[in-house]
Amino acid sequence: MNSFYIPFALLWLVMGGPRAYSQGFSRLELHASDGQPFAVVLNGQPPTEVRAEHRFDELVPGSHKVEIWVGSRRAVRQTLQLAGGYQSVFEVDAGSKRPVVRLVAQHPLGVVPSQPPVDASRPPHLSTAARGDRLYTGRVGCMPPMDAGRFAQVLLQVSQPFNDPARLSAAQRALENRCLSIEQVVQLCRQFQSDRARLDFARFIYPFTHEQEWFLDVGETLVFESSREELQHFFSQQAR
Fold first, then answer.
1. Fewest CB within 10 angstroms: 22, 145, 191, 235, which?
2. Taking a C-beta distance cutoff of 8 angstroms, is the pair 186, 222 a contact?
3. Residue 53 forms beta bridges with which residues?
4. Is the pTM of this model over 0.90?
């Protein structure tokens, strides 16, 4: 949690004292629906850095006042309810006629990972072997990975749209029934502005990825530990 937020002891008293504490901490995540970076003012504190996604850990359960700022404009002012012991993921729709922050997911903290959480400074990997030693393990019938020239064109097509939804659509059109190496998958993931879009692309491209046993290399592109945990959970559910 950023150092400028209200000290826990004071916030604990304001938000309900012993009852709130007994319910456990809450985690708040905010993601831009269109990838547009924004700043957050939480409970009247100084604004955060401008990013397409934000996370706040160790919040006391209950009501939290959130302001979403896009440039010099306050797009949304809303009170969010956070449950103790849960991670609450909200989508920020600041570009519509009626800007809103809406709840899109909520799950108990510590439940999503199917493997122990990884250190935030080290992306998850299944092996330490050199990439050059990898063998093809893509789906049956998958053609060889896209050649460098064609991939450069796809990379340009995906990077040109302004927001993440448009970039994801461009990627899906350009890559339909085409296969990629894991290095190419990682490069494309880096073209998206938010972890949410990177994870959506990862789910789409998994069946068309060579060297699927190395798919957790996508974790190199993710900002939040919770996103890497979600990637691990997705990977664990795939039949291999």
1. 22
2. no
3. 31
4. no
Instruction: With cut-offs at 50, 70 and 90, classify the pLDDT of residue 168.
Output: very high
Residue 45 φ/ψ, nearest 5 degrees: -80, 170
Residue 30 pairs in a beta bridge with 54, 90
Do 88 and 107 form a contact (C-beta atoms < 8 A)?
no
Question: Residue 159: in which H helix or E strand, if any?
Answer: helix 148-159
Q: How far apart are CA 36 and CA 50, in angstroms?
A: 9
Express each pLDDT in 120-146 by its tens digit: 333 444 334 445 555 555 554 566 788
Structural domains in the chain plus CATH codes: 8-108 (2.60.40.1120), 131-236 (no CATH)
Beta-sheet pairing, 86-93 with 26-32: parallel
Q: Calculate the alpha carbon distances from 37 to 59, 93, 94 in Å.
A: 23, 11, 10
Describe the crossing of helices 148-159 and 164-175 by its angle, rounded to 10 degrees.
150
Residue at token pair 């092996």: 127
The answer to whether residues 104 and 28 touch, using CB atoms and an 8 Å cutoff, is no
